[in-house]
């Protein structure tokens, strides 16, 4: 069974992936302008401040859009078809790409409230995903 | 600068062999299209002193140096801006600026791709990546793809505005009708809305026939000053106005899934040309997917946000409709080598010249061409007119 492409953590993102491994969902908060951002960066994408802090996020959000995918974009998805690709708007504001899991693909709707779950894909990598809340 | 663009003209356009061309490299396709475009103008490669190109696939690094060396050009203006399929439309703006300010005199925009032959003749995904470095590690592990990204936009538009799959299908049907009139088009058999609706669902709500082709293809566009253009063999087509913009790289970061950067680039192009929507006789709108066209028409202001579905209904963009669009058959039916932008410029130029034979839009004087690149990320808009 092929694996999906997995993240190779780097300077900006290592703390995020480490937290996910520990089943914590974290988000960056800018202490200078007060905005949250996703995905993690070395600076704030609103004001370019380097003064960012990691916060435990609520793990709640709603589906901004989704698509039920019937074709595997990579061999690692061949056994997962169909899967739900989705953009979730986090309660903290930013949006992120994810999968909606633990439900029938056809039951997913825009605006549906969802909560984070942790998919331990390998011993090193955990992917935050979302399920109906 | 805005007015300087008025003194620049397109003097040559050409395609290479299109479709499945397994015996030619992408470099050869690009160079053969370049030769044909220069021939149209009565220019030679020795006249070229500006080169604009990008290659996003294997062996394409340092694109302008690579292609200049391949064709024996020593440019004094070079631009390998890489913003996806809209690059080649944005190059028209960059070339016009370079010519208007004297940075170069004859600019060559070229493109070649063996997108279908590279995949062993089969469409579909080729990714074999095992680990992802950079920001895309927040998308690829979830199975994002080009079609999946555009599907997210389509789903959102449907949710917000009630747009239907049938309305998206109108675009595919109209575009195929145009392709049926173009001997160079890859797919020429007429289709119906039912054909689109009954084609395989790839990523909901997009069906197979909502998606562009995968082909090999090359194209080239040659520009020079209007003054020099008037002494050349071909009928000059003036660059009246241009604009470019981009809003994001990854689809999850798109500020609004229902509006593209064409809202910026289109506004700039209209303002700089001093024209309005009713002045446009023919539109060449990058159609990577049917939804791309719908969002672009709204973003360019041809209709209000949410009205795109109604706008394209009743085959309005088909031959005989009152909004002729994608008259060569588009990326949906004519050709799509991964990046389509240059072909919108080629067809827009030919329509304004009156060179399009059976598919010629009667008395087309002004054309709008819009490229979209990445995942609805970047746009280039140009407005072309007769001298
Ligand atoms: Zn900030």
Tell me what the structure shows.
The complex is a heterodimer of chains A (133) and B (387). Chain A is mainly beta. Chain A has one domain (14-132). In chain A, 6% of the residues lie in helices and 39% in strands. Chain A contains one helix and nine strands, in the order βαββββββββ. Chain A has one helix at 14-21, and strands at 6-7, 26-30, 36-37, 52-56, 60-69, 83-90, 95-99, 113-120, 126-132. Chain A has a five-stranded antiparallel sheet with strand order 7-6-5-8-9. In chain A, strands 3-2-4 form a three-stranded antiparallel sheet, covered by helices on one side. Chain B is an alpha/beta fold and 387 residues long. Chain B has one domain (8-118, 213-386): Peroxisomal Thiolase, Chain A, domain 1 (3-Layer(aba) Sandwich), CATH 3.40.47.10. Helix content of chain B is 33%, strand content 18%. Chain B contains twelve helices and twelve strands. Chain B has a nine-stranded mixed sheet with strand order 3-2-4-8-1-9-12-11-10, with helices on both faces. Chain B is globular and about 55 Å long. The complex binds zinc ion. The site of zinc ion has 8 residues of chain A, from loops.
